[in-house]
Amino acid sequence: MSFTTFRFLCFFAAVLAAHFALPRRARPWMLLCASLVFYAAAGLPGLLWLAGLSLAGFLAARSISRQQAAGKSGRLPLVLGVGLHLGLLFLLKYFNFFAGGLLGAGAPVLSLAVPAGLSFFVFMAVGYLTDVYRGICPAEENYGRYLGWLCFFPHILQGPIDRYADTASALFAGNVFEERRFLRGLWRILWGFFQKLVIADRLGILVAGVWAEPESFAGWRVAAAVVCYALQIYADFAGYTDIALGAAEIFGIRLAENFDTPYFSRSVPEFWRRWHMTLGAWFKDYLFFPLQRSRLFRKFGKAIKARFSKTAAKNLPAALALAAVWLFTGLWHGARLTYVAWGIYYGVLIILSMFCEPLMARLRPKKENALWDAFRTVRTFALVCLGYVLFRSATLAEAGVILSRILTAPFAAGNGFSAAGLVRTDLYILVPALLLRLAVSLCHAKGIDLREKVMARALPLRWGIALVLLFSVIIFGVYGPGYDAASFIYFEF
Amino acid sequence: MDRNEVYERLNAVFREVFDDENLTVQDATTAADVEDWDSLSHITLIAAVEDEFDISFDMKTVVGLKCVGDMVDAILREL
Amino acid sequence: MMKKTRFLLRIAAFFLLFCLLLYGADRLLVDRSAAPRTESFYAEPEDSIDVLLIGSSRIMCGVYPLLLWEKYGIAAFDCAGSAQVIAQSYFQLKDALNYQSPRLVVVDVSTVANGNVYTGVESFVHTQLDHMRSPLVRLSAIFTLVPKKDRVEYLFPIVKYHTRWSEVRAEDFDQPADICRGAVVYTGFSEKEEVLPPELIARSVAGELHDIPELYLRKTVELCRKHGAEVLFVNLPCVRDAEFQRAYNAVDALAEELGVPYINYLYEDSLGLDYEREMFDTAHLNSAGAEKLTAALGAYIRENYDIPDRRGDAAYARWHADLADFRQKYY
User: Fold this and answer.
1) Best of A197, A475, A478, A484 to disrupt the C interface by mutation (most C CBs within 10 Å)?
2) Same domain, yes or no, for C6 and C77?
3) Which of A23, A173, A358, C278 is deepest in the core (most CB within 10 A)?
C-alpha cells in the first residue's frame, strides 16, 4: 500500500482512531495487527515470507542469548540466522541476476515474487541478531513484540533501517497520546505528501520523458533532467521518510532520521553521512567494522605496515573494506548492473578521497572561505548527479547514451521540455515548490525546528499554513486520472 | 596501572594515529573535538589502542564509547 | 479530560473547515462545459414537467421539448445523457423524480445494444454523475455503476478535476442559460459520415436482452409506476447493422410482458424520414428530422395519454418566450 494513496489515508485514519480509542495496553497490539493488514495489502505470499523469517530471527536471537548465558559464544545460531536471512534475500532478489550473468541465456530462472520491503526488513533483522550477539541489546522473549517491531508499518516498506535497541521499547512502553506530538507528526506527514506529490512526481514526468528519448533533446536539457532527477529522488525518498517518521511520531515512536540536508555536503564522504543515513550506518556497523576488526584484516594490516608505510597500513585494508561496502551498497539497491556500477563509482570516489586526504589537507585554505565552500558544495552535487546517471538508467548502454548526449551535443537542436511531458503551468508550481523545499532545507541546516516555530503561531496562521499546504497537495499534486501512477522510487528495493 | 599512566600511553597512541604531536586528550574529549576522527580512523584508533595495551574490546564496548573517558574506563576494565 | 475534549473539538472544527473549502474547490474546478444544460433542469419549478425523456444522446437530438410545447402544449424535459446506458438512465430518472412528478416517462432503449455494461463513455459518465443533485441517488449510482478502483474520483470529483486549475475561466461560471429543455440541436450534416437508409431486418428477428439492461428496464418501469407515471419505450431512427437491430427488437418481448408500449421508429414508415437529409450522422437526427419525429411522437402522446395542454397556463408563460428564441435560433 503506497503512502500517497487515498487507501492509505483511510487506513491511517482508522489506525489513529483505534489508537486514540483503545486503552494504552492494547495499543501496541493494535499497531501489530494494523501493520500486518498493511503488509498483507502488498500480497499474501509476502506475508508468509515475513512470518517465516521473523519467526526464524526471533528463535535464532533467543538461541544466541541462551548459549551466551551458558558460557558459549553463540556464534552458530548467529551464523545460521544471518545466513538464512541473507540467503533468502539473495535467492528471492538476486538469484536470477547472478545466474543470468554467469550462465547466460540458459540459466535457470526462479520466478518467485519478491516480498515488499525485503531488503529493508532483512537488514533490520540481521542488525538485530548481530546486536544480540554483541550484547548491545537483549534477545526479545516475546515473538509478538519482535514481529511488531519488524513489521511496524511506517518502516517496513522503505525503511528507515531501525535498530531494535533504539525503537522497540518505545513501541511497547510508550504509546501515550500527546497532543503536541500528534500535531508535529501530522505536520511532518503533510510536508512529506507535498514533497512527493507536488515536487517529486512532477519532476518525475520530465525525467522519464527525457530518459525515454535522450537523443531528441539538446545536451543541456538532458543535463537539466539529471539535476531534476537528483531533486526528484530526494523529494521522493525524503518525502516518504517524512511520512514514515511523522506517522511513528504520532504513536510516540521515534524512528531514525535518514537525511540531513544532503545536497549541502561539501565532499562525497560527507554526502554519504547525510544521505540515507540509516543504510550507511548499517553498512558501517555490520559490514565495515566487522571486516576491519577481523583477524584477517588485522593480519593483512600488520603485513602491510611491515613492508610499506604506516599510512598504507591504515589505508589499504580500509580500502578493501570500503570496496566491499560499496559493492554491496550498490547491489542492495537492486539486481541491476547499473546499481552495481553506481556503487563501484562511489566506492572509487571514497577510496580515492581517503588516499588523497593528506594531499587535500595541504591544499585546503586554512581559514573559513565561503567561496571555497560553495565551490565544494557545487562540485559534490555535480559528482552526485553524475552517479545518478547510472542510478536512473536501466542499462549501462542507456547511461552511456545520456552521458554522451550531454558531452557531445550540449547545444544541439532538439525538443523543448514540453515534449517530455512538462508544460509551462508545471513550472509555475515547481519553482515556488522547489524554493520552499530549499528554504526548509536551509532552516534545517541551521538547526531551526520549523514545526515548533509554526506551532507557536496564532491559530488562524497555523490553520492557514496547514490549509495552504493541504490544498497545494490536493490541487497541484500529481495524482488521479490523467497521470500515470508514480510509485515511490525506493519501493522496488 | 592508574588513570594517569593510561593517559600517558593513550596520548601517544592518539598522536600517532592522528599524526599530531600536540594532541592531548582528556576524559571529556569526543570525536567532534579531534580533527579527522571519523569512522575510518576510529577503527584504526581502536585497533591501535588494543595493540598498545594488549587487550581486546568486544563490539558492545566499542559501540558504547562516547568519549575518551569511556575508553579509559574500558581499558582499565580489560587490564 | 477537558483537554482531550477541547483537542477533539479543534480537530473537528479544522476538519469541518477543510471539508467546506474542499467543497468550494470542487465546485470551482469541476468541468462546467455541460453545466448550462444540466442546471436548466433543476431550474424548472418543482412538479411542472409532465413528460420526462430519458436515455442516450439519440433522444437528446431526436425530440425537442419546445416543439412538443409548440404543437401540443406538452411540458416535457429531456434528461438524457450522452452515451448513457440503461443502468445509468435508471439513476438519472431516480434523481429527476426527486424534483418532478411527470405523468409519462419516455425511455430511449437504444443502448440495450451496448452490451452487458453499467456505464458508457467514462468522461460522459463522470460529468453526468458530477451534476446529479440528489446526494443519496448519486452515491448509490456511484456504488452500483462504477468499478471499485475508480470510485474515489467519483466520490471526490476533485481527484479528476484538480488538474484543471490552470484552465478555469470566469466565463465558465457565466454561461448563458440553456432554453432547450434538455434537447441538443444538430443542424445540417456531419462531415464524418455519409448516411444511407438502413437495411432493415424483419422485426420478428430478435436477439436476447443482456442481463444488466434488462434488469434496469424492469426497474425503470417499476420506479415509474411507483411514482404514478406511465412508461413508453422508443427506439429512434438510426443506421446500424443487423446485430444492433436484433437487440432493438429484443425489447418487444419485454415491453409486451410489462405492458409497456414500444415504438420502434425504424419500422414506422408513416414517419417518412429521409435518412439522407434528415439525419446528422448514423445515430442522430438533425433539426429537420427531429422536427418530424417530435411531431409524430407528440401526436402519439396527445392521442394515447392524458397529458394536459399547458399553453394557456400562466405558470408556463416563460415557455412561449423560450420557444420564440428557440425558433429564431434554429429555424
Assistant:
1) A475
2) no
3) C278
Which of C7, C22, C152 is opposite residue A179, by nearest beta carbon? Answer: C7
Instruction: Looking at the structure, tell me whether residues C120 and C16 fall in a common domain.
Output: no
In A, which residues are within 8 Å of B43 by CB distance? Answer: 288-289, 292-293, 318
Q: Which residues of C141-168 are buried (b: 16+ CB within 10 A; e: fewer)?
A: bbeebbeeebebbbbbbbbbbbbbeeee
Question: Given CB atoms, is C149 within the 8 Å cutoff of chain A?
Answer: no
pTM above 0.90, yes or no: no
Q: How far apart are CA C89 and CA C118, in angstroms?
A: 10
Distances (CA, A) of A25 to A15, A120, A176, A341, C98: 15, 28, 10, 49, 51
Give one DSSP letter per residue of A189-255, joined into a string: HHHHHIIIIIIIHHHHHHHHHHHH-GGGS-HHHHHHHHHHHHHHHHHHHHHHHHHHHHHHHHTT--P
Residues C88 and C156 in one domain: yes
- Whose CA is closest to C56, among C95, C92, C96, C99? C92
What's the one-letter identity of residue A134?
A: R
pLDDT tens digits for chain C (331 residues)?
677 788 889 999 999 999 999 999 998 998 888 889 999 999 999 999 999 999 999 999 999 999 999 999 999 999 999 999 999 999 999 999 999 999 999 999 999 999 898 988 888 899 899 999 999 999 999 999 999 888 988 999 999 899 888 888 888 888 888 999 999 999 888 887 788 888 899 999 998 999 999 999 999 999 999 999 999 999 999 999 999 999 999 999 999 999 999 999 999 988 889 888 899 988 999 999 999 999 999 999 999 999 999 998 888 999 999 999 999 988 7
Contacts of C153 in chain A (CB under 8 A): 480-481
- Contacts of residue C113, defined as CB under 8 A and 6 or more positions apart, other chains included, come to C240, C243, C244, C247, C248
| DSSP-assigned states of every residue in A434-448 | HHHHHHHHHHHHTT-
Cα–Cα nearest to C69, from C330, C255, C319: C319
Query: Do A474 and C162 make contact, defined as CB atoms within 8 angstroms?
Result: yes
Domains: count for chain C: 2
List the CATH number of the domain containing B57.
1.10.1200.10
| Chains A, B: CB pairs < 8 Å | 36
User: Do C4 and C71 sit in the same domain of this protein?
Assistant: no
The full set of domain ranges for chain A reads: 28-104+112-175, 181-492
Q: Are residues C18 and C136 in the same domain?
A: no
Q: What type of residue sits at position A173?
A: A
Owning domain of residue B54: 3-78
Question: Do A and C touch (≥3 CB pairs < 8 Å)?
Answer: yes
Judged on CB neighbours under 10 Å (0-12, 13-18, 19+), C224 is: buried
Residues C104 and C240 reside in one and the same domain: yes
Q: Which of B39, B52, B56 to mutate to test the interface with A (most CBs of A within 10 A)?
A: B39
The region, left, alpha or beta by phi > 0 then psi within -120 to 50, assigned to residue A113 is: beta
The domain tally of chain B equals 1
- Structural domain containing residue C23: 1-29
Say yes or no: C23 and C99 in one domain: no
Using an 8 Å CB-CB cutoff, list chain B residues near A292. Answer: 43, 47
Residue entry with cell 592508574: B2
Q: Do C161 and C117 belong together in one domain?
A: yes
